[in-house]
Amino acid sequence: MTWLIPILLMIAAFVGFGVWRGRQFGELARRGVPVTGRIVRKFRAGSAEMSGSRSRRLAFTYTGPDGREFRRAASVSIGKWAEYEEGSAIALICLPDDPGVSAPAWLVELAREALAKKGRL
């Protein structure tokens, strides 16, 4: 029975992270401002032992409205992975009052569409 507590804690952490990131996307969709970033690295993250378990990620830098530079990464589909090369520009959305919170513009657009369908935009 002692194995149940760590599993429940991991599930709670996973759900909590999803809710937290979902709220960030809501804020990005409602109040985000566009910025242009630069792809600094394309990489695969996850377990190499299990086929298909490695996600494709793009690391990018951008300068926020406050002039500070940020570096973030995002998981992307295979199509977006192929679309970008290191050194290329990427359209991003960040929060004007918290520019460290950002996401690729196409992902924020999907969040906007979902919020509009629910009448929450």
Structural summary, described in words:
There is one protein chain. This protein is of the alpha+beta class. It has three helices and five strands; from the N terminus they run H-E-E-E-H-E-E-H. It has a five-stranded antiparallel sheet. Strand 4 and strand 5 form a beta hairpin. Helix 1 packs across helix 3. It is globular and about 50 Å long. The chain starts with a helix and ends with a helix. The model has no long low-confidence stretch (mean pLDDT 87).
- The rounded distance between the terminal residues' Cα atoms is 45 Å
User: Stretches where pLDDT falls below 50 for ≥5 residues?
Assistant: none
The helix content, as a percent range, equals 25-40%
Strand order of the largest sheet: 3-2-1-4-5
Give the biggest sheet.
Answer: 5 strands, antiparallel
Radius of gyration: 17 Å
From the spread of the alpha carbons, the general shape counts as globular
How many strand elements? 5
- Structure class: alpha+beta
Mean pLDDT across the residues is 87
β-sheet strand percentage: 35-45%
Treating each run of at least 4 consecutive H or I residues as one helix, how many helices?
Answer: 3
Order of helices and strands: HEEEHEEH
Which key phrases capture this entry?
121 residues, alpha+beta, 3 helices
Task: Describe the SSE topology.
Blueprint: H1 4-31, E1 33-46, E2 54-63, E3 69-76, H2 78-83, E4 89-95, E5 98-104, H3 105-117
Antiparallel strand pairs: 1-2, 1-4, 2-3, 4-5
Helix pairs in contact: 1-3
